[in-house]
């Protein structure tokens, strides 16, 4: 286990099993369709890479990169688009894939933004859900795990850009981010 982590919350094997189930469910729901799977960089890339390979339907892939306005750990709800989609999603079935829904502000903003572009349908898939901190009720169609209000890293999720490569999802030691909070603002870095 990594030195900066408190304990493993979800093992590689638990994650893989759940991702397979999500893949089956999504494949059933989209039978006969070819959705555009949209990953939110960078946190969702590892989850999305595994998820699309558990699908039995054809898909296309695209990505967006976003960052919250301001450096504070309290998300303002206003999201800046750092990289937009390459596809025009008008008329497409879009499946938005995100690592975690916490306050819901990021996904809520993205959802409303994408809906203005006229997709045939828009659904949301998140690996993790921290319902304890929700501020906006964003409809999540597919969720891997509900987790407690702890700051987690690994399997794509970072703290200041680190730990994304870890295979398990782990709870970060509180001292790792409280020690830095004087000069660096938040557990979440830019670029989700
Ligand atoms: P929301 O807008 O739902 O509050 O924030 C979602 C974003 O906050 C996620 O995409 C992620 O970047 C970050 N985030 C929220 N909780 C965690 C967490 O426990 N660990 C990590 N690494 N990022 C988190
Ligand atoms: Mg982050
Ligand atoms: Mg994210």
UniProtKB/TrEMBL annotation:
Q: What pathway does this protein act in?
A: Purine metabolism; IMP biosynthesis via salvage pathway; IMP from hypoxanthine: step 1/1; Purine metabolism; GMP biosynthesis via salvage pathway; GMP from guanine: step 1/1
Listed cofactors:
Mg(2+)
Protein known as: Hypoxanthine phosphoribosyltransferase
Q: Where in the cell is it found?
A: Cytoplasm
On the tree of life, the source organism's domain of life is Bacteria
Identify the InterPro entries for this entry.
HGPRT, Hxn_phspho_trans, PRTase-like, PRTase_dom
Where's the Phosphoribosyltransferase domain? 10-159
**NCBIfam families of this UniProt entry?**
HGPRTase
Q: Which UniProt keywords apply?
A: Cytoplasm, Glycosyltransferase, Magnesium, Metal-binding, Nucleotide-binding, Purine salvage, Transferase
Q: What EC number is given for this enzyme?
A: 2.4.2.8
The UniProt similarity line reads:
Belongs to the purine/pyrimidine phosphoribosyltransferase family.
- Catalysed reaction equations from the record: IMP + diphosphate = hypoxanthine + 5-phospho-alpha-D-ribose 1-diphosphate; GMP + diphosphate = guanine + 5-phospho-alpha-D-ribose 1-diphosphate
- Please give the Gene Ontology molecular function terms for this protein: guanine phosphoribosyltransferase activity; hypoxanthine phosphoribosyltransferase activity; magnesium ion binding; nucleotide binding
Under Pfam families, the record lists: Pribosyltran
Which SUPFAM superfamilies does the record associate with it? PRTase-like (SSF53271)
Look up the record and report any one GO term of the cellular component aspect: cytosol
GO terms in the biological process aspect are: GMP salvage; guanine salvage; hypoxanthine metabolic process; IMP salvage; purine ribonucleoside salvage
Chain's role: Purine salvage pathway enzyme that catalyzes the transfer of the ribosyl-5-phosphate group from 5-phospho-alpha-D-ribose 1-diphosphate (PRPP) to the N9 position of the 6-oxopurines hypoxanthine and guanine to form the corresponding ribonucleotides IMP (inosine 5'-monophosphate) and GMP (guanosine 5'-monophosphate), with the release of PPi.
């Amino acid at each position: 286990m990594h030195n900066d982590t408190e304990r493993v919350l979800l093992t590689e094997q638990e994650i893989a099993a759940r991702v397979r189930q999500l893949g089956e469910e999504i494949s059933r729901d989209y039978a006969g369709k070819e959705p555009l799977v949209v990953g939110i960089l960078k946190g969702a890339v590892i989850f999305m890479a595994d998820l699309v390979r558990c699908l039995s339907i054809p898909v296309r892939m695209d990505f967006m990169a976003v960052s919250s306005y301001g450096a504070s750990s309290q998300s303002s709800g206003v999201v800046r688009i750092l990289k937009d989609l390459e596809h025009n999603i008008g008329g497409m079935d879009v499946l938005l894939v995100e690592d975690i829904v916490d306050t819901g502000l990021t996904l809520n903003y993205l959802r409303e933004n994408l809906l203005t572009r006229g997709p045939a349908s828009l659904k949301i898939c998140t690996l993790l859900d921290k319902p304890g901190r929700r501020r906006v009720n964003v409809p999540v169609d597919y969720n891997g795990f509900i987790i407690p209000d702890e700051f987690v890293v690994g399997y794509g999720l970072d703290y200041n850009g680190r730990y994304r490569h870890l295979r398990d999802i782990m709870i970060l030691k509180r001292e790792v981010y409280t020690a830095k909070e004087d000069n660096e603002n938040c557990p979440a870095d830019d670029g989700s």
